[in-house]
Amino acid sequence: MRIFVPRETHPGETRAAVTPETAARFVQLGAEVAVESGLGAGIGVADEAYTESGASVSANRGASLGEADLVLRVRKPPAEEVELLKSGSTHVSLLEPFNEQGLVESLAARGVSALSLELIPRITRAQKMDVLSSQANLAGYVAVILAAERLPRILPMMMTPAGTIAPARVFVIGAGVAGLQAIATAKRLGARVDAFDTRPAVEEQVLSLAARFVKVDLGETGQTEQGYARKLTEEQRGMQTEAMARVCVQSDAVITTAQVFGRRAPVLITKETIARMRPGSVIVDLAVESGGNVEGVEADREVEMNGVRVVGLANLPGRVAVNASQMFASNVYSLIEDGWDAETKAFRVDPEDEIVKGCLVTHAGEVVNEQLRKAQRV
Ligand code: NAD
Fold it and tell me: How far apart are CA 266 and CA 250, in angstroms?
């Protein structure tokens, strides 16, 4: 089986879907691996490192896309590259399937089996393939580092002959994978941390990181079978916004990570809340790529509102691309290895397999994903 890994073309994308380490493992499985020249440029890896791991280096992206049985990449394919893919081949990447109906349809029409990494089911067997978790974890870390660097004050408490400095206060909204890592990172840096999430199950995890859980009685909230938050009602949203505002005004940094899978992120910090916050404070909005938790946040920009800096930088894992690629590549390898047929030395798309079924979006000329079909009906 021929695997091809093209360079990422999305502006600012530094990550690579395959590292020399995982390339070597694919070769061990019996695959023929080709990477596009420059694939490792964002992670300090030269073409030679891939060659040493047994891969070949291609300078002809179009031809290599057309020859590959399996294409691996971080981001969705550019629309104009779909027709270059071989009919019957498999494509594995993030796909933003809920926003990319046209792209999904064109992959189906091309006869490509596309696996969308966002849709890997959150079951124990798939944990090592869970790209959303591995990348969110790093994003949570980076968010705190960005905030710390922008704050005009330090995070830890310091007792010095020149006086005692109180710890900075960090408020983390949404304590999923990214939020929990943000809490842990802010704690390690010595901040006093408050956190909130609508899923009651999270309280214990927040407390175990020695952060304070902000209690807001929103009535029934809960989570889906996959562990995702449910959408709140209008009234619950209003109650939450006010409760969040009360903590925001006392905080130096606010990290927002609240998302509802497959939907636009809820707006939790309004302009009125920002107007009540202390000048010099910083908000980092990790949900910016799904619409943002902060009113007025701008994607991939930093804006100032009433002296409060609102950071909407996109692709935070890309800022620690070495580790992000290491984890992403390991996730992708685990997914492929799981469906590898040792006899034919090929990845077999088995639509009946629980993991493949969850993330297979197009197959045999059709859009096949149940979650996606449901989302498109509502
Ligand atoms: P996510 O990125 O979809 O959302 C981030 C957080 O925002 C979630 O904790 C969510 O509850 C919270 N949120 C949503 N609306 C909110 C609101 N209005 N106010 C405050 N918070 C709000 O979630 P995620 O981090 O990708 O994962 C969520 C959970 O899924 C994890 O905490 C974990 O328990 C579970 N999970 C399970 C597995 C597995 O079993 N393999 C893998 C990964 C995650």
Answer: 22
Contact criterion met (CB below 8 Å) for 8 and 73: yes
Helix, strand or coil, per DSSP, at residue 306: coil
The response to whether residue 198 sits with its C-beta less than 6 Å from ligand 1 reads yes
* Overall size of the chain counted in residues: 378
58, HSE (Cβ side, Cα atoms, 13 Å): 20
Give CA–CA dist 210/182, Å, rounded.
13
Q: Are 104 and 91 in contact (CB under 8 A)?
A: no
DSSP state of 345: T
- Partnered with residue 267 across adjacent β-strands are none
Pocket lining: 259 vs ligand 1, CB cutoff 6 Å: yes
DSSP letter at 11 equals: T
Residue-wise pLDDT for 90-127, tens only, equals 999 999 998 899 999 999 999 999 999 999 999 999 99
Ligand 1 pocket test: pick from 98, 223, 259 the residue with the most ligand atoms within 8 Å of its Cβ: 259
Can you give the pLDDT at residue 374?
A: 80
Residue 128 buriedness (CB in 10 A; 0-12 / 13-18 / 19+): middle
Residues assigned a catalytic role: 122, 127, 130, 133, 228
What's the CA dihedral at 350, 352, 355, 361 to 10 degrees? 70
> Does ligand 1 lie within 6 Å of residue 133's CB atom?
yes
Taking the centre of ligand 1 as the mean of its atom positions, its distance from the CA of residue 177, in whole angstroms, is 6
Q: Please check whether residue 318 is in contact with residue 6, taking contact to mean a CB–CB distance below 8 angstroms.
A: no
pLDDT bin (cut points 50, 70, 90) of residue 377 is: low
| Main-chain phi, psi angles of 181, to 5 degrees | -70, -35
